[in-house]
Design goal:
By secondary structure, the chain is α/β, with parallel strands linked by helices. It folds into 4 domains: 146 residues, Rossmann fold; 109 residues, Hect, E3 ligase catalytic domain fold, CATH 3.90.1750; 140 residues, no CATH class; 66 residues. Helices cover 45% and strands 14% of the residues. The strands form 5 sheets. Strands 1, 2, 3, 4, 5 and 6 form a 6-stranded mixed sheet that branches. Strand 5 and strand 6 form a beta hairpin. The longest helix has 39 residues. It is elongated. It starts with 5 loop residues before the first strand and ends in a 22-residue tail after the last strand. The C terminus is likely disordered.
Length: 553
Amino acid sequence: MTERNIVVPYERFSSKQQAEGDSLRRQSDAIKGFIDKNGYILDDLGFVDKGLSGYTGKNIKGGALGEILQMLKDGTFPAPHKRILLVEKFDRLSRLPTTDAITDIIKPILRTGLAIATVKEGKILTNDNIDDMGVFLPIILLLNEANAYVETLTYHVTKAYDDKFERLVNEGTIMGHGLPAWLKYNQDKTEILPIPNKVKLLQTMFSLAAVGYSSNKIANYLKEHHEDEFLTEKQTSWNVQSVLRYMKNRSVTGRYTSKTKNRPTVIRENYFPVVISTQDFEKVQAIINSRTQSKINKGLKTTGKDGKTKNLFTGLLKCSECGMGLGFRSSGDGRGTKSKYSLACNGRLNKTGCKHATIQYMMFERAIMEHIRQINLHAVLNNKSSVNMIDTYRSELALKKQQHDMIMKQLQGALDEDDMLDFMILKRTYKKQMKEIEQKIQEEMIKCVAVPNFENVELDSFLMDCELDGNTPDWNQRQKVQANLRMIIKKIVVDDEKIKGVPRMHQIHFKNGAVEMVTTSRNKSGSIYIEDKNKTELSNDQSKSDYDYLHML
């Protein structure tokens, strides 16, 4: 028995498919046979790289081979001069280009005293015989062959895929790769077929979503009525994430989208069997998006971190250029040329291409509040027909409640699952319609009675620009005014000053559909004045309380 008699095995396979095959067992058996034949000792230390490519060098960058190299470098590898690193074949160690394999793997290992041996060739490579061309030349040829094999294989696979991709683009030919969970191939992979029971599950999800069922309620329904039915083998339960994943997958409409590196994105309609119509799919997406936006609005903060209501128009401001919201920003000291508070388009801040200029908040706030205080809100918001409309809506609501109650009785007596689902959809439809009618009643009542009184509000006591005189805004009053504004205003579209000197035309959209215009401009001295929508010039006899000059901050 020689001094170098301890074997450290290294095994590797490249893909997940090989994990399910015989690769690892074959390598282990070969290494064990080599040890028994030559009388070596199997070390407790062993290394395995599962699913890591030797061609890309992943077994070095994040694998067991990289760990071996690091241990040798750090001096923590036990007695390398007494050990042999044993692999089945050299291609298990590396499939890198020959020069890289020698420079990055072979020589760094041998220099530490650790030897390398392969079962197939039966030769041991050491730092002492590396210069022997009779030993080293066959190693070079083997490494070159290992790399060339992958290069050739990659070429043929890529060429085959390119041919398929070209036929997909030009003819819509089936690619033959993985399919959505509710579809399968026929025996010779020439046709894509729906899986009936899985398609039915999908259609149930979309039917429930279309009448307003939330993702959570759909998941609960599936747990109750389809407890052991799933779209994939790995799935073990229904939850919000799994429901949303399928309902947002446009493949249900038949669309196939190919997104492959270094290739253009290809979209083919009717590539897959259509299991959900495009119209129904878009309807469900709109419901999902509106519910998401509703959650955002519910969580909208109306005060700052200090608990003060600085922005009266939180959640109401929209950019006239891109439609995104305007954010409230606090900066500067409020003196000189820097504004302490400003409004900036989120689209511009997020670099989406919007060029909407920043606007001074104090000027904008006074302009909007001056206008709202002076107009007759009762005339703007009241509708003479509102009382009659309320009565009409209440009659409709009573009828829908009767229909809803009838469906509830039929649902309790339903035994068949399909009938039960139909009744549940009808129930949800009536409930949604009732909610819409109740919302209309509320809107009409707002027109009649919920008209906030801004006429007697003393603006100078609570507007932010009172800080310029060293005063503190009435924060309680600001919070009340903010709540009143949100009750009657749907949105305020903030205009951009596209041409210097041309007034900005801001639009106040009330919830009853009425629209008011507020104009802000800059005069030659740099001041900003406010114009009523019906008055474009300031008369000499108008008091300062009606039209207040605001100076640049």
